[in-house]
Structure to design on (87 residues):
């Protein structure tokens, strides 16, 4: 799972896996290990896609909000004299 986290550029994430297993502690089959990895990859991939979708939606909303602002408001005066009025 570390390689997947590195591939998608995730930092500061802690993943804890707890397996309740009826066999002797420390004896996991390859099948159980593979299942844990597969479920972890599915979860990380899904979360990553959701984050990308949310970022895209925020960017679109910001773009729409800025496009509704009149250009006069976005243009700052070049200089302001001592009386507080723009040249």
């Amino acid at each position: 799972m570390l390689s997947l986290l590195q591939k998608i550029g995730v930092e500061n994430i802690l993943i804890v896996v707890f397996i309740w297993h009826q066999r002797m502690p420390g004896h996991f089959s390859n099948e159980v290990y593979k299942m844990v990895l597969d479920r972890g990859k599915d979860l990380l991939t899904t979360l990553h896609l959701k984050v990308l979708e949310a970022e895209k939606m925020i960017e679109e909303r910001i773009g729409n909000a800025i496009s509704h602002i009149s250009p006069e408001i976005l243009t700052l005066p070049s200089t302001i004299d001592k009386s507080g009025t723009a040249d």
In short: The two ends are 60 Å apart (CA to CA). Residues 28-68 form one domain. Residues 30-67 form the longest helix (38 residues).
